[in-house]
Amino acid sequence: MHTVKEDGGRTEKLVRDRIPEIVRATGREPETRVAGPEEHGALLRAKLYEEAGEYAAGGDPAELSDLLEVVHALAASHGITPRELEEQRSAKAAERGGFSSHLVLRLPD
Asked: Which of 3, 26, 67, 96 has the most CB atoms less than 10 A away?
């Protein structure tokens, strides 16, 4: 898990918007704070590693939706809509191709 240590030694991590509500439903009171814009970007990048690691570790396709949620949040932080992101992805695929051919490039040592 990619987390950020606070000065007091507590571990913090970015969570989805409804997580505090879900925690409250278990009878516990979560301690939360709101990250500033710059910190939010850093926390989103850490979350990207966390979610990618979870997918890489087990290959569970359900983890891809978590990864996509983080990608959409990162794009939004740059002012890019999901539609614009898809247009960029599509343009890059048209220019360079996708991964459907399963090609592996052999590089000289």
From this structure: 67
